[in-house]
Automatic annotation (TrEMBL):
GO terms for molecular function: DNA-binding transcription factor activity; sequence-specific DNA binding. Keywords: DNA-binding, Membrane, Transcription, Transcription regulation, Transmembrane, Transmembrane helix. The chain crosses the membrane at residues 224-243. It comes from Clostridium beijerinckii. Coiled coil: none annotated. The lineage of its organism: Bacteria, Bacillati, Bacillota, Clostridia, Eubacteriales. This is AraC family transcriptional regulator.
Length: 278
């Protein structure tokens, strides 16, 4: 599903940026200069989900990622960070994932994970030393991009890229970068509820209704060269194995995939997998 209305994208961006704060429906509607009643109707018409449910789901998904990677924080502290008391957090978490936060954290391991795109397949992680040897810390510049936002299964990205590039082919040049901005961990978030942006870099003079800026900053950058179906397990390895032991914390609640070359015939890519850190 493409989120076409710029106002709804604006509201989603606001929610994602303030998800660890006490954010209400009124806050989002006010930010978009609409009444609560009118804006909630617009949001549901565009996304298929109520604004309240969307905020609640994103909060819970992000808290689950925190449980996984911020192992020095207590479950109570993580719940409080996302606006829950200790008892309310456990109840809400259990309702969404059918497992309590304590058991969820115990179930997170550094050996591997079931591939959500192929549930019969178990993928094993590499060692911390492997990831650490492939990661460099870089300060990335801002990227001015044309983008489209999607809510749906990450496995549909390939098809969506073809359509996206066809729509914006006039902007694509030899030095254009293709960038995926992903907001969810598909091993946690329901596959059809994942949020991601497809982006192409453009020159400063370009004007378009679908322009935005991906902010730069400090990133852990993994130089990936391999098959497309291995991107998922590599990203998760960075989060599950490398990040908790690296001495860094994730800074922004998204990850970037920056393509440098794509061999569609053989499903092989060279790209940077980037995690914002602090």
């Amino acid at each position: 599903m493409i989120i076409k209305k710029s106002l709804i994208n604006k509201s989603i961006e606001y929610i994602l940026q303030h998800i660890d704060e006490e954010i209400s429906i009124e806050d989002v509607a006010n930010y978009c200069n609409f009444s609560k009643y009118h804006f909630t109707r617009m949001f549901k018409a565009e996304t298929g989900i109520s604004l309240y449910s969307f905020i609640k789901r994103v909060k819970m998904d992000q808290s689950a990622v925190s449980l996984k990677v911020e192992k020095d924080k207590t479950i109570t502290d993580i719940g409080i960070n996302y606006g829950y008391s200790s008892s309310n957090y456990s109840s809400a978490f259990s309702k969404q994932y059918s497992i309590c936060p304590v058991e969820f954290r115990k179930s997170m391991n550094s050996t591997g994970v079931v591939n959500p795109f192929c549930p019969s397949e178990y993928n094993y992680f590499k060692s911390f030393e492997h990831y650490d040897g492939h990661i460099i810390i870089e300060n990335l510049n801002d990227f001015k991009v044309i983008y489209e936002r999607y809510i749906g299964d990450y496995s549909e990205i390939g098809v969506n890229w073809y359509s996206f590039m066809e729509r914006y082919k006039d902007y694509i040049k030899p030095d254009t970068l293709l960038i995926e901005k992903s907001y969810n961990d598909p091993s946690i978030t329901q596959l059809d509820k994942c949020i991601y942006d497809l982006c192409i870099t453009v020159d400063e003079h370009v004007q378009s209704e679908t322009l935005t800026t991906i902010k730069g900053g400090k990133f852990a950058v993994y130089r990936f060269s391999g098959y497309i179906y291995d991107i998922f397990i590599t990203f998760l390895g960075i989060f599950n194995v490398w990040l908790p032991r690296s001495g860094y914390r994730r800074d922004e609640r998204y990850a970037l995939g920056i393509y440098h070359s794509i061999d569609r015939k053989n499903s092989h890519v060279n790209m940077d997998l980037c995690v914002a850190i602090k």
